[in-house]
Amino acid sequence: MSGLFDDLRDLYQEVILDHGRKPRNFRRLEDATATARGDNPMCGDRIELFLRTTPDHRIEDAAFQGRGCAISTASASLMTEVVKGKTAEEARALGAAFRELAMTGTCPDCGAALAEDMERLAPLSGVHEFPSRVKCATLAWHALNAALDGTKEASSE
Questions:
Q1: Are 127 and 69 in contact (CB under 8 A)?
Q2: Which CATH number fits domain 2-155: 3.90.1010.10, 3.50.90.10, 1.10.238.10, 3.40.50.2300?
Q3: DSSP H or E segment with residue 61
Q4: Of 14, 103, 138, 154, most Cβ neighbours within 10 A?
């Protein structure tokens, strides 16, 4: 069993490194309808999130810029992929589930509706073993809530 666990850990680590080195949606979105900045003062991670929403409040596009550790960058990259097509409410629910995953390593309340997206976010589940890194993984999600709320500023503190 430990061989399978080690293989899974290696796969997850590879996904994080890939998204950290080559983040998806790493660009400025000129026609954004909502933006927010996220700041993690403890380690210096900073992102600016851009969202373009449709008239019926679906996230049509999501992008980010900034600098941070591989975990912060990978999380923002994965987040911008999974929130596309979601309503603000769906994106918030996904963010709450992800924060649970990041803090505990599991998400017992993640039902079938979130299963596919949570599987894509699973590579970040290992951060729960490193409490100081949970803030790195959740920074983009705090910025997402700030953008959806119109508050424009988010902190991992």
A1: no
A2: 3.90.1010.10
A3: strand 59-67
A4: 138
